[in-house]
Amino acid sequence: MSIACIAIIDSQDKLNFIDYYIENEDQVHFKFQTYTALQLISPILQKKLNGGTSTEPYLGVLYTIYLPNNDYDVHAYITITQLKMIIFIKQGTEKLNLLAIFEKIYGLYRASNYNPFHQTNLNKLIKPMVIEFNGI
């Protein structure tokens, strides 16, 4: 599995965190695609709530983006506090438990943002996890 980008958006749809973990793609594409994915999350969530189906936090693959060098699946996760997380994963790689990845990122986000005594940058917390998942 190759994680290319992770984005975290707050409940007011403001981009709180974005970081890129690949070298060979234009990072601007991922930022634009983050906003595109954000536009798709709200209707999917409303459909799940109105349809009476499960309100799982993991929304699955929203869509696939096709860039010149690689194709990426866009996965989304939404917390009870409406915090949205989007991960871009390179297609053609083995799948891991994405729910566990999202939950770990959410735990790291809570540790860095909600604890006034924790002074570590979120990027410093997430980067080792991404390196581990990417097998670098």
TrEMBL record:
GO terms for biological process: endoplasmic reticulum to Golgi vesicle-mediated transport. One of its GO terms (cellular component) is cytoplasm. Pfam families: Sedlin_N (PF04628). This is Trafficking protein particle complex subunit 2-like protein. It comes from Paramecium pentaurelia.
